[in-house]
Design a protein that fits this description.
The chain has 276 residues and is mainly beta. It folds into two domains: 1-6 and 28-64 and 205-276, no CATH class; 73-191, no CATH class. The chain has helices at 52-58, 107-119, 189-204, and strands spanning 35-37, 80-84, 103-104, 125-132, 136-143, 152-159, 163-165, 179-183, 210-219, 223-234, 241-254, 259-275. Strands 1, 7, 8, 9, 10, 11 and 12 form a seven-stranded antiparallel beta sheet that branches. Strand 10 (223-234) and strand 11 (241-254) form a beta hairpin. The longest helix is centred in the last third of the chain and has 16 residues, at 189-204. It is globular and about 55 Å long.
């Protein structure tokens, strides 16, 4: 199976700061043309008989995830960015050589990394509150410059006893394995599902271009497999149609090593949207 390297995926971090003021995907005012099927779904997950479901959800402002998909509900509607401190953010520009998210069990170390990241940032943000969950340490920062209004940065560091990140977003050499990290929690279906959805949510929450059509997890003797079908919208402009891409994505988590990896990402359908 072909592995498509796509930094939009995770965290994981396709932009340094993800603002909630994204390009608006408004409801269509005209009929939308059909699509072209690129490849049959090989795992029998989700192939609607036509494109109606995909188109409806692509232009539904209120839809993001299917029922039961994990996300941090208390963040909805806030003007904020979630940012996980990393090996790039805590160093001056001339010393940066990679981008792997950080992890620790020490709150002081996490706060120090957050302070270093703020020091090397172009905008000074003071800590106004600290939070902690089973997944991360969080330092809530607010811009001191009134020009930025009430914008909040949620500076976070992974907890080592939940998840250890391993993926380098700026590798010196191409990485075809796409190992994401190591899960340290209890190996149950529900826990692995929550881990993957948590890692999916924080870089994609405020990205109006990405929606999850369906997600399923299965357990085998030696691993867990998790499937997502993503609706990804690229907005048109000045007489150009929107394009809607449907991806089948598979993650695996090895029970022995606890390593989570991106196993497959395949484009299965292209749909032409409204003309702008």
């Amino acid at each position: 199976m072909k592995i498509m390297r796509n930094c939009v995926l995770f965290f994981i971090g396709f932009t340094l700061f993800i603002s909630c003021e994204k390009t608006d995907i408004s409801e269509p005012e005209e009929h939308i043309s059909g699509g072209t099927e690129i490849d049959k779904d090989k795992d029998g997950i989700i192939e609607p008989s036509d494109n109606d479901d995909f188109l409806k959800l692509a232009y539904d402002r209120d839809y993001k995830y299917p029922d039961g998909f994990y996300y941090e509900k208390d963040l909805t509607g806030s003007v904020y960015s979630v940012y996980y401190e990393n090996t790039l953010s805590i160093k001056p520009v001339n010393e940066r050589d990679g981008w792997i998210e950080l992890h620790t069990l020490n709150r002081e170390e996490a706060r120090n990394w957050s302070n270093l990241s703020n020091e090397y940032s172009s905008v000074n943000r003071a800590i106004i509150r600290e939070n902690e969950t089973e997944k991360y340490f969080e330092f809530v920062r607010k811009n001191e410059n009134e020009y930025y209004g009430n914008f909040i940065l949620l500076s976070r560091v992974h907890k080592s006893d939940y998840f250890i990140p391993m993926h380098d977003y700026l590798p010196a050499e191409p990485d075809e394995t796409y190992i994401i990290g190591i899960f340290k929690g209890d190996l149950t279906k529900s826990n692995v599902k929550e881990l993957i959805e948590y890692l999916w949510d924080y870089p994609n929450r405020q990205n109006n271009s990405s929606k999850v059509y369906k997600a399923e997890i299965s357990e085998q003797e030696d691993k867990f497999e998790y499937y997502i079908q993503e609706i990804f919208i690229i907005g048109g402009d000045w007489g150009i149609n929107d394009m809607i891409y449907i991806y089948d994505i598979k993650y695996t988590l090895d029970k022995e090593t606890r390593i989570l990896s991106l196993a497959e990402k395949n484009l299965v359908k292209e749909i032409t949207g409204i003309k702008r």
